[in-house]
């Protein structure tokens, strides 16, 4: 058992006609979708489709230019930052490690939303952090400096930090891009267990269409800043849809959990 019971029931998420631009460059264009409490949702799409920007708006790092991002029944920007950190835990695509934290110290940072008023961790915080390290396979690195680790090891530490946060919503930005095949499957298995056994809401950005198809309840295909397709894996992972938006020839095995094969372009 994962033993990471969230502090409350997970909230739903809603993007309501959201638009966002960096300067003159429009990134999200009238984006609307909803994630039900406790869903496992994958976000796929070509590079530059707005996937990472979607997470920045969802976590309140950036305000939308138009429309509304709602978590539970509140605009995300109306939720105080400490409360957002107790609701949503984020695994970023990349994170620079400036200070020479040990692995254990880095994972303990995930407890900050729960210890900020006290200013220190207690034995329960340490137990939770160590359990998180165990679940992602970095316990043996606990005393090592994070800056000395490989890219894949560093990313597993960031995943452990997010688990230690005990938030009911987990948001992950291409976490499997840094992991070998064993840890990619282990990560998705762990996320599925947290989703199934603890009711976590999981929203994961991934380029791996087959892992998304195997594990996700629903998939959003983001293309040109809007939800080009949104539904079950069988509804989204169709050859005609993927070829149109990814501009590559594919073959898809049907069924509830489709498998996508890329065909050579010759």
Describe the structure using short key phrases.
Rossmann fold; 26% strand; 12 strands; 6-stranded mixed beta sheet; alpha/beta; 4-stranded antiparallel beta sheet
Distance between the termini: 48 Å
**How many domain modules?**
1
Helical amount: 25-40%
CATH architecture, by name, is 3-Layer(aba) Sandwich
Encode the helix/strand succession as letters.
Answer: EEEHEEHEHHHHEHEHEEHHEE
Strand proportion, as a percent range, falls in 25-35%
CATH-level-4 superfamily name: P-loop containing nucleotide triphosphate hydrolases
**Rg to the nearest angstrom?**
18 Å
In short:
This protein has helices at 51-58, 81-87, 103-108, 112-115, 123-136, 151-164, 181-198, 209-215, 233-236, 239-246; strands spanning 13-22, 25-35, 40-44, 66-71, 74-75, 88-91, 169-173, 201-205, 218-223, 226-231, 250-253, 259-262. By secondary structure, it is α/β, with parallel strands linked by helices. A 6-stranded mixed sheet has the order 6-7-8-3-9-10, with helices on both faces.
Description of the structure:
This protein is of the alpha/beta class. The protein has a single domain (13-262), classed as P-loop containing nucleotide triphosphate hydrolases (Rossmann fold, 3-Layer(aba) Sandwich). Helix content is 34%, strand content 26%. The protein has helices spanning 51-58, 81-87, 103-108, 112-115, 123-136, 151-164, 181-198, 209-215, 233-236, 239-246; strands at residues 13-22, 25-35, 40-44, 66-71, 74-75, 88-91, 169-173, 201-205, 218-223, 226-231, 250-253, 259-262. It has a six-stranded mixed beta sheet, sandwiched between helices. Strand 4 (66-71) and strand 5 (74-75) form a beta hairpin. The longest helix is centred in the C-terminal third of the chain and has 18 residues, at 181-198. The model has no long low-confidence stretch (mean pLDDT 90).
């Amino acid at each position: 058992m994962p033993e990471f019971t969230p502090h409350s029931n997970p909230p739903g998420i809603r993007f309501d006609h959201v638009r966002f631009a960096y300067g003159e460059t429009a990134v999200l264009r009238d984006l609307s979708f909803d994630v039900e409490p406790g869903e496992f949702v994958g976000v796929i799409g070509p590079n530059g489709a707005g996937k990472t920007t979607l997470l920045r708006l969802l976590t309140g790092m950036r305000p939308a230019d138009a429309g509304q991002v709602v978590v539970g029944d509140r605009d995300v920007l109306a939720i105080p930052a400490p409360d957002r950190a107790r609701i949503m835990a984020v695994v970023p695509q990349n994170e620079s490690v400036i200070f020479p934290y040990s692995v254990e110290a880095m994972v303990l940072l995930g407890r900050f939303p729960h210890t900020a008023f006290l200013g220190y961790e207690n034995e329960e915080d340490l137990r939770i952090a160590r359990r998180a390290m165990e679940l992602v396979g970095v316990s043996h690195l606990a005393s090592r400096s994070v800056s000395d680790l490989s890219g894949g090891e560093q990313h597993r530490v960031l995943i452990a930090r997010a688990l230690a946060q005990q938030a009911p919503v987990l948001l992950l930005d291409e976490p499997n891009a840094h992991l070998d095949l064993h840890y990619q499957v282990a990560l998705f298995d762990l996320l599925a267990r947290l989703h199934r056994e603890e009711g976590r809401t999981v929203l994961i950005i991934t380029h791996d269409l087959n892992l998304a198809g195997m594990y996700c309840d629903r998939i959003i295909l983001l293309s040109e800043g809007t939800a080009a397709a949104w539904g079950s894996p069988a509804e989204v992972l169709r050859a005609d849809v993927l070829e149109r938006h990814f501009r590559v020839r594919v073959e898809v095995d049907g069924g509830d959990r489709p498998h996508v094969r890329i065909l050579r372009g010759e």
